[in-house]
Amino acid sequence: MSGPGGPHGEAGGLLVELLGDKLVTAEREEVDVQSLCSRVSMVGLLFGCGMSAPCLQELAGLTDFYRNTRDRLEIVLISSDPDHKKWQLFIKDMPWLALPYQEKHRKLKLWNKYRISNIPSLIFIEASTGKIVCRNGLLLIKDDPEGLEFPWGPKPFCEVISGPLIRNNGQSQESCTLEGSYVGIYFSAHWCPPCRSLTRVLVESYRKIKESGQKFEIVLVSADRSEESFKQYFSEMPWLAVPYSDEARRSRLNRLYGIQGIPNLIILDPKGEVITRQGRVEVLHDVDCKEFPWHPKPVVELTDLNAVQLNEGPCLVLFVDFHYVLRRELVLNLWKMCWLYSTSFSEIQEKKQ
């Protein structure tokens, strides 16, 4: 048994910082957060609301999953219910734990920390480190309803994408042909108007990059609601796609990159490592593809297109009044400061993980 300074004590401290000292059961019994680490290795943070129909629909499958895996993980509800009675009704049949209703400030911090944009959302974290294991926990449960693949460590892109890919003329090729190329993983669907708008631009970008001699390929991961819709949409595209019938592989790719909305374009280097998750922004901003493969810059001009990046981590915004002449040296020094700040922050995050 570990003491306060032992591994369980340190890990428990991380969870206490995140969730507070106490959680509650549906029967209103209090549970010490500090004790969770001695019992489980993973915690699922469930963001939801009792007034949301999708949240209520997901509970049945989640309950079965929890009963199969509760010896290895714990789930904690972080509810956005507006009043205490609705919150009580929401949790009354839940077998897992919940953040107390009165912890409103902590709930808000958690929603902001994990950038929750839709509900229900389930994020799995390591109990000992707080490191995110999976952002799309609900997709994970659909893929592995009995928890047989626990603890769901990250897999390399080449393993997740493994299998046949198709072109719109019916030809098929193995995913291993992507090796040595830059790859764009395109999460999109015909029913989504912003997706269709992006696709038109992306077709031109794809052509320009290929004509420049770069080894580049795009793989569509469809979110269409029928195979007929997929085929109609895919007929406009000159690149590859995961077969619509391979729902498991499409789901694993969504899970791998934590996709929570479409359109989304992830750009990978020839080793399968992420260069940028903001491929959509880059394609729309750099229509001539002169800056491909779009490595992130330490300093960018803030626009409507890239403003979404403000939600992805600490940012330093510099407001400049162009009515006055600014010395070039001053601007360069400010840019250098921004770069040092972003580099230092990245190193700190890597050490934490």
Terminal Cα span: 25 Å
Main beta-sheet annotation = 5 strands, mixed
Q: Which stretches are poorly predicted, pLDDT < 50 over at least 5 residues?
A: 1-8, 345-353
The average pLDDT value, as a whole number, equals 86
Tally of DSSP helical segments: 11
Number of strands: 14
CATH superfamily descriptor of the largest domain? Glutaredoxin
- The CATH top-level class label of the largest domain: Alpha Beta
Compressed to H and E, one letter per element, the order equals HEEEHEHEHEEHHEEEHEHEHEEHH
Reading side by side through the largest sheet, how are the strands ordered?
Answer: 5-4-3-6-7
- Report the β-strand fraction as a percent range: 15-25%
What gross morphology would you assign? globular
Q: What is the C-alpha radius of gyration, as a whole number of Å?
A: 23 Å
> From the 3D coordinates, which CATH architecture of the largest domain would you assign?
3-Layer(aba) Sandwich
Structural class: alpha/beta
Main location: cytoplasm
GO molecular function: thioredoxin-disulfide reductase (NADPH) activity
Family: Belongs to the nucleoredoxin family.
InterPro entries: Thioredoxin-like_fold, Thioredoxin-like_sf, Thioredoxin_domain, TryX_NRX_thioredoxin_dom
